[in-house]
What we know:
The protein is an alpha/beta fold. It has helices at residues 9-13, 18-28, 34-45, 51-62, 67-82, 88-99, 112-121, 152-164, 184-187, 200-209, and strands at 3-7, 103-111, 128-131, 133-136, 139-144, 173-178, 192-195. It has one domain: HAD superfamily/HAD-like (Rossmann fold), CATH 3.40.50. The protein is globular.
Amino acid sequence: MTTVAFFDLDYTLLNASSGLLYIREALRQRRVPWWVVSHTFLNYQLKRLDFGQAHGRLITHIGRHGPSETAQFFSEWIPRRLLPRLTAAGQAKINWHRSQGHRVVILSASIEEIVKPVAEHLGLGQDYLCTRLAVENGRYTGALAGPLCYGPGKVYWAEQWALKNNLTFPPPLSYFYTDSSSDLPLLEMVAHPVPVNPSRKLAKIAAARGWTVERFY
């Protein structure tokens, strides 16, 4: 029977938000105007846009000429700025699971342009699930390709991954490491829910339910 360990990315395997880091870099390189970021963030705060839609709007500025342009941006930025943000404890936990023969999967609301290179760096290959941006005729449309990989969306993508790999869902022997209470839908489904560096709300839930909390630094 296959044991599966799902890992969130932001504030779990990373000690920061990958989305915020890449927007800061885009601003630094003047690939996107301040007013566009501010307007997008305001609409996100007002719940006129969700996380994925906000990414979809911004990526059309960062990659004006399509995925090939963003590929160059991320290939230069990720090794220099993002990979050093991976925590030693998080990588050690992944290595432990792999040494036990477990399947390790990154499960993140962040976009594929960020998550895929991190998964490859960690030796996970195609075992990653994330938010995907729609592309038509070689250009980003500003929409999503499939559901946002956030909250209940993580359950959807985890189930699709299990079906693709001929596994029962939820896997009877499963872990989920995450910092956010938004991930409660999947935390409640796995055999071993593991809050990592939990938000205040998730810490309260963990204490009430007797879940063991871990710290990745």
